[in-house]
Amino acid sequence: MATILTHRYVVSDPQLLKGEPIIQGTKTTVRAIVELWRLGISPEEIPSHLPHLALAQVFDALSYYSDHQDEINHYIELNRVPDQLVHPAVKR
């Protein structure tokens, strides 16, 4: 059963993505939204990249991140592509 966290749109369900926080009703992770934001995409622009999300959901995900940075940073690290697997043409 999904657990509604302290944020309106963010839930965690052990049966979906092993409990990683997602936007309710989607499989979009808070991590994905944070990573777009870290790339320099403004919160207002993120729904154009993820059109199934409303701006309120994006802001709630970023608010959740602000309250749970260690948790989300852990998920980001778990999903990071190792440097040796990144093609040289796309390395920073």
Please provide a written account of the structure:
The protein has helices spanning 30-38, 46-49, 55-67, 69-78; strands spanning 3-4, 10-12, 22-23. It has a single domain, classed as Winged helix-like DNA-binding domain superfamily/Winged helix DNA-binding domain (Arc Repressor Mutant, subunit A, Orthogonal Bundle), CATH 1.10.10. The longest helix has 13 residues, at 55-67. It is globular, with a radius of gyration of 14 Å. 25% of the residues are buried. The protein contains 4 helices and 3 strands. It is 39% helix and 8% strand. Strand 1 (3-4) and strand 2 form a beta hairpin. Helix 1 (30-38) packs across helix 3 (55-67) and helix 1 crosses helix 4 (69-78). The chain has a 3-stranded antiparallel beta sheet. With 92 residues, the protein is mainly alpha-helical. The N and C termini lie far apart (40 Å).
Overall strand count = 3
Low-confidence stretches: none
Q: Can you tell me the CATH architecture? A: Orthogonal Bundle
Name of the level-1 CATH class = Mainly Alpha
Mind telling me the C-alpha Rg? 14 Å
Helix content: 25-40%
According to CATH, the fold-level topology is Arc Repressor Mutant, subunit A
Mean pLDDT: 91
How are the strands ordered across the major sheet?
A: 1-2-3
Count of structural domains:
1
The profile of the biggest β sheet is: 3 strands, antiparallel
Could you give me the name of the CATH homologous superfamily?
Answer: Winged helix-like DNA-binding domain superfamily/Winged helix DNA-binding domain
Structural class: mainly alpha
Instruction: Give helix and strand order, one letter per element, not per position.
Output: EEEHHHH
| Helix segment tally | 4
Q: Note the overall shape.
A: globular
Strand content: 5-15%
What distance lies between the first and last C-alpha atoms, to the nearest angstrom?
40 Å
